Amino acid sequence: MGTSAGANPVTGNHPLIPAWIPDEQPATDQSGDVPADGAANPSQPTGPNNVASAPQQFSDPRSTMTSAVRLSSTGSLRGGGGGGAGLGRSGTRATPAGRVRKAISQYVGARGGPAGVAQRLGLASDIGARLFEALDRIARDGFDAALAALGLRLDERSAGAVADALMTLVCAEAAGAIEGVLDENMARCACDETFISLYEQGISLTSLTPEDVPAVIQSFAINAASLLITRDIATMVVDSPRTEEESRTLQMTLKSVIESSMRLELPAASGRTIRQVRDAIGRSYRDAFQILQAAR
Known about the structure:
Elements: H1 59-71, H2 96-110, H3 114-120, H4 122-141, H5 143-150, H6 159-174, H7 184-200, H8 213-239, H9 244-261, H10 274-293
C-alpha cells in the first residue's frame, strides 16, 4: 500500500531506513571498525539533505544511539516486557531505551533547542494540516462528497489507491512551501507509514469518524519526527551489520519515545483553519521536544 518502497502492509516489515535515503557506507578505521560517533565518510557528498552534512553537529547523539543498539544485544531495546509503548519516562540512561531518549535529548540540543527541531519539521506541520483538512472532510461529509470537493478522481477505491491519491494531494501542494530538510519524499513516507498502520488495524480511510482524525494526524506527526531523527543520527547505526529485528525495534523505540511526550491539541472544530491546525502541530512538536531535551 502507498508509495514508499520497502514497506509491506501485510507483514508489517517496515525498514528503519527508507529507500529514498541515499545509500552510504560508514567510515572505517584501519581495523575496519565503524567509529562510535557514526561520523560520515568524508568522501560522501555534503549538503542540507545529506546525512553526511555537519558530522560534528550530531556526533554526540549518534554515538549515544550507537551505544543503545550495542546494549540491545544483551537486552530488549524496548525494555523488559511491555513492548515499545511502555517506554515513556520509565527508561533510564543505563538501558537501551534510556540511551535512545538521551540521544534524542542531545539531538534537540544540537538542533538549537525545541524550536529548532520544530522549525525543521515545518513542512511536516504544513502537510499534517492539509492531511487533516482532507480526512476531516471525508469524515464529516462522506467519501463521495469529499472527493468531489477535493477535486480527486479515482479509477478504483482500493486502500492503496485512496492512500496514494491523498498523499499526492497533500504532499504535492505543500512541497517546497517551507524550507527545511523534511522534503516531499520524506513526508510521503510519513503519510505512508501512517496509512499502513491504519490498514494493519483494519481501519479504512473512507470510514473515519471526526473523532478519529486528530489521532491519525498525531500519528503522522510522530512518524515524520521519527524519520527526521533517523536521517540525522541513526542512519549510520543501522548501515552497519545489524539484524532486521534490531532495525525494526530501534524504529519502534524512536516512535515510542516521541509519542510518550507528544500531545496534539487542536482548536475547536467551529471555524478551524488550516493555519490553526498547522500551528497546533508546531506547538506540539515544541512541547514534546522540550520534554525530551530535559531527559538527560
